[in-house]
Design brief:
With 157 residues, this protein is of the alpha+beta class. It has helices spanning 11-19, 41-46, 66-76, 102-118, 145-148; strands at residues 2-8, 24-32, 52-59, 84-85, 88-89, 95-99, 128-131, 135-137.
């Protein structure tokens, strides 16, 4: 099993979409990339913790590749929006890939370069590629938010 961590706006719909991908074994939503330990959603909403709302994905690389997860990540949000996605504004909603090893870093950089060269977006891609650091799991009511309420995910890949 391998781990991937992505930030692409509000983590609820992002998690729901990743959970639909065959080979994704488990997901958690939470906060990473900031400077406050044991951060809570109330602190995150202020936008001054440095954390991004993120989805940590555990996946079976024999069933889904990291590159396929990167493709899903790019399709799930607008990587040209800085510190916001849709109605969500603030650095906690930024676009970021938190890499867990050198291979993920190389794949993420190559994937971003391909996207930039594709002409798919008029504006520059602002997605950060950063080393994975401590991941603080969000409160339980945020986990599998849509599934627990009987809703279909907001978007599919």
């Amino acid at each position: 099993m391998a781990t991937a961590t992505f930030a692409a706006g509000c983590f609820r719909s992002v998690e729901a979409a990743f959970r639909l991908i065959p080979g994704v074994i488990a997901t958690d939503v939470g906060y990473t990339g900031g400077h406050i330990p044991n951060v809570t959603s109330a602190q995150i909403r202020r936008g001054d913790t440095g954390h991004a709302e993120s989805v940590r994905i555990r996946f079976d690389p024999a069933r889904v590749t990291y590159e396929e997860l990167l493709n899903a990540f790019w399709a799930l949000h607008d990587p040209t929006q800085r510190d916001c996605q849709g109605p969500y504004n603030g650095p906690q909603y930024r676009s970021a890939i938190f890499v867990h090893d050198d291979a993920q870093e190389r794949a993420a950089i190559l994937s971003r370069v391909r996207l930039e060269q594709s002409g798919r977006h008029e504006d520059p891609v602002v997605t950060e590629i950063l080393p994975a650091v401590e991941f603080w799991r969000a409160e339980e009511h945020h986990q599998q938010f849509f599934e627990k309420r009987g809703f279909a995910p907001a978007c599919e890949v």
